Amino acid sequence: MSDSLTVLVTGASGFVGTEVTARLTAAGHTVLPLTHRTTDLVRNNGRKVTAGRGTITPVTGDITRPGLGLDDEARRLVARADRIVHCAAVTDFGLPDERYETINVAGTRHVLDLALAHRTPLVHVSTAYVCGERDGVAREDELDVGQHPGNGYEKSKLTAETMVRKAAADGLPVAVVRPSIVTGASRTGHARDRKTIYPVLRVLTRGLVRTVPGHYDALLDLVPVDRVADLVTGAATRFDEAEGHTLHAVGHVLTLRDFSDVLAEYPSFQVPRFVPPTAFSADALTDRERPYYRRVIALYETYFRRRVHFDDTQAAAFVRRPPATGARPYLRRLLDDCLATGYLGPAPTTDRPDGSTHR
Amino acid sequence: MILTEDQLQNLLDKSLAELPRGTEWAVTLEGSIAEGFGNPSSDIDFLLVARSEDDLPTMPSLLFVDGRRVEIRTRSVRQLADQFRAVEDGAKRPGRLSEDLLNRCQRFLHSHPLRGHALVEEVKALLPVERFREITADWWAHRARQSLRHALALLCLGETDEAVDWTRSGLVQTVKSWAARVGETYLEPKWLSLQLDRAARADVRDRYWLLEATAPAPGDTGAAHEYLTAALAFAAQLGLTGVPQQPERITVERVNGVTTWQTGDRVHVVRARREVFALGDDAGTVWRSLVLGRPLPQALAASAATGVTEPGALLATFLRYGLIRLAWKGGGTITPSLPLAAPPGPVTPPPSTARPLLSVRGAAVGGPRAVDLMPLPADRFAAAAMGLVWANVVVENAVEDLTGALQRGQWRVAELTTRRAVHAALRGLFSAYGVNPLPADSDLVRRLDLLPAATGRPIGEGAGTLLRRTVDAPERGDALLADLRSFIGLVRGAVGADSFPLSFESADTWRATLELGYDWLRIGAHLDAELPIEEARDLLASNGAQPHRTPAP
C-alpha cells in the first residue's frame, strides 16, 4: 500500500508494545519491533503476533546503550523508519534509582538521539502520573508545574518527558501519549502482565494487609490496554494530527470507595479498611502484615491519597471513540479474570511478601 | 366431548341472552371441555371474538346457566393476533415466555367454534398448530432442564429430599414437553393422565407413572441419586437435551447487590443493599471459602476443606436466601420453578430475635451455623453499629474529662460531663438493641421502656439518679466518679463486654476499637448510612487524638 509506514517500536515485547506492534502490522505497516533478545511477541490474549497485511522485521537492541546497541544492519534498517514509537520503560515500583535512570531516562535519551539523527517523528509513551502528587485536574498541556513526584518511577518519567519536550522545541516532530494505570482488556478484563495495581489487589484481597492509609474519595484511573494501544497506534499512523499534542490515554475512574464496594461483592475477598493517612502507622500493623505492607502496599500508597482527575480533551478529540463507561463493571471483569486464572483467590499456605505468583 | 353440540349451543344462547346486545361476535368454546377433558363440574368457557382493533377487557363475566358456571371472555382479532405474535417473539427465550400468554394461545388454538366459524379459523391460522407445539414443547423442556439441574445441584449439596422433589417436578415438565410435541399442548398438568392415554405410547406412559410413583426413602442419598439417574435417562429417551449428569457444569455465581462485610470475626452479608444477614462462625467460614465462578463440586470441596461439617447444607441455605446463585455452563442462571408456578425467588427467614442485637464486633447470632436475618434495614443496622462505636468512644472520653474536672474542682463541669457520659452509655445501650435513630438525649431515660423491663428498669433508675447528682466538694466528686463507673459497669453487664470493650484500658484495646470503627464506617459508607455525628469521622481520622488533651505516649 502506498501510505504504508515503517515503524520502530521500542519495548515491543511489553504489555503495550506488543499490542501496538500487532495493530500496526494488521493495518499494513512494516514494524521493526526492538527487543532485548529476539523472541516471539505474545499478545495479551496469549497469541503470537504474526505479520498482518504488513511485515515484521525484528530488531535486537538495548535502549540503555547509545545507538540502542544496534549492529550495522539494524542501524541501516532503523534509519529508514518513518516513525519511532517509544514504549520501552520499566514500570515496576520500588526499584533502585539507577534502574529508572538507566532505562527510563537514559533509554529515552538514546531514542531521542536516534530520532534527532534522522528527524524521525517520535511517539513517546509517558504516564499520566507525571502529574505527581496533587489533587484536582491534570491537563494534557501541563508538564512541570513544580509537582512532587510520587516515586522514583514518576520522577524518571517526568524527566524523560521533559527531555522529549525539549527535543520538540528543538524541532523534532513529537507526540506524547500518557496512559494512566494500564490494566486488562476492555471486554475480557484479561491481562497477561500483572503489574501496578495487580500485586496490590492480591495482597489486599488475601487479607495480608488489612489496614491501608488512603482516602475513600481518592481516584484511580484504570485504562484497558487495548485503549492505550489504539491511541498509541493512532498517534503513529495519524501523526500529522497528533504532532505537538500530549494525549491522556485514560479509562475508568474509580474511587477507593468503588474498590471497597466491588471487592465486597466477592465472598472470598478481604476488603481492606482505608484509614486517613494521618492516622496510619505501619508500626501498628501486625508482624505478619508489616512485610507485605513495606514490600507492596507502601510502594503504591501514594495513589490512594490522590484525588487527581485527568482531563483528556485533546485525546477525546483525537480518538473519535466514546469515552470508557462502566467503571465498576470493568473492575469486576478484571477481578473475575484474576480469579479465573488463579491470580487471585484463596491464599496458598506459604505466600511471598512481594505478592508474586508461585510458578 | 362430554357435552353435545346442541347442549353447547343451548348454553350459549342462554348465556348470550344475559349479555348486552350489539356486537357481532364469533364464539368459541375453550378450556378443558373443548380439549376433550372435563367432568360434570367443569366450567364452560366461552370466548367471544370481535372483528375489531379494540382492547376488550381481560376479566371474564361469570354466569350460572342450568346449574353450570359459565365464564365469558371477549377478545378482539387484534388482541388475539398480538398474543400469537408475542408468543412467536418470545419463543427464543422460553425462560421469559409467560405461562399466561402461552395458556391463552393454547386455549384458543384448541377451542371448538360455535358461531362465526370462519372468523375463528381465520384467527387460528395466524399461528400454525405445529409451530405452537414446538414452542410449548421447548417451553416445558426449558423448565424441565432448570428443575433437573437444580435437583442435581441439591443432590451435590446433600439436600437429598429436596433434590427428590425437584426431580419429580422435572419429570412432569419433561413428559409435558414430550406430550406437547406429539400434540398434547394443554398446559395444566391436572389432565396429564388423559393426555398420556391419548398420546398412545403406553411405554412412555407406563414408565412415567412408574417413576412418578417411586418414592426414595427420606434422607437416602443413594436412592435419591438413583432416582435422579433414572429420571435423567427417561428424559434423554424423551429427547430432553442439556442435562448431562455432570455437576461440574454447575457454577457458583454472584448475585447483584450482595456484599460481604466483616467486623472482628463476624461476617455480615448484605442482600440487595437492604437486608443484613449475620453469619455464625461456621457459616462465615464456609461463606468466606466461596470463590465465585468455580464449579459447584469444587466450591463444595473448598468449603469442606475448612473443616466445617456438612458445608453443603450451608451452601444450600445461601442459595435459598439468594446470597449466591447457580449457573449452568452455557445455560445461564438455574431458575427452577414448579410446574405452572413462578420461580420461588429468594427465601426470607424470620428475623433474628437476639437481644441485644449488636456489639462493636458485629451482630449477635444464634449459633455457629446461623445465617440470621437482622430485624432492621441494612442502613439502620450500620447506623446503629456506628452509633454504638461512637457511644463507646464518648463514654470513655467523658470519664477522662470528669476525672480532669474533679482534679481541678470544676464542679459544674463535672456535673455536665457526668450527664454526657450517662447519655452516651444509654445511646450505646439503645444502639446495641438496634434502636436507630436514637431518642433525644432528654428522652433517653423515659424511652428505656422500649427495652426489656429487666434491663431497662435498673439502668433507668441508675441513670435518673446520676443525671440529678450535684457536686460541691472533692469527696462528693469521688463518689460521683465511682457511681458513674459502677453505672457504666451496669450497662456493660447488660449488653456484654463486647459492646463496651473498655477502649482506653490500653493502647491495643483503643486501636482495636478504632479499627472496628473504621470497619463499620466502611459498611456504613457502602449503604449510605447516617453517621452518628460528623465528629465521629473526625475522631477516627485523628486516630482518637482529643483536641484538648495531650496524646498518650
From TrEMBL, chain A:
<dbReference type="InterPro" id="IPR036291">
    <property type="entry name" value="NAD(P)-bd_dom_sf"/>
</dbReference>
<dbReference type="InterPro" id="IPR013120">
    <property type="entry name" value="FAR_NAD-bd"/>
</dbReference>
<dbReference type="InterPro" id="IPR026055">
    <property type="entry name" value="FAR"/>
</dbReference>
<protein>
    <submittedName>
        <fullName>SDR family oxidoreductase</fullName>
    </submittedName>
</protein>
<feature type="domain" description="Thioester reductase (TE)">
    <location>
        <begin position="9"/>
        <end position="231"/>
    </location>
</feature>
<dbReference type="Pfam" id="PF07993">
    <property type="entry name" value="NAD_binding_4"/>
</dbReference>
Automatic annotation (TrEMBL), chain B:
<dbReference type="InterPro" id="IPR043519">
    <property type="entry name" value="NT_sf"/>
</dbReference>
<protein>
    <recommendedName>
        <fullName>DNA polymerase III subunit beta</fullName>
    </recommendedName>
</protein>
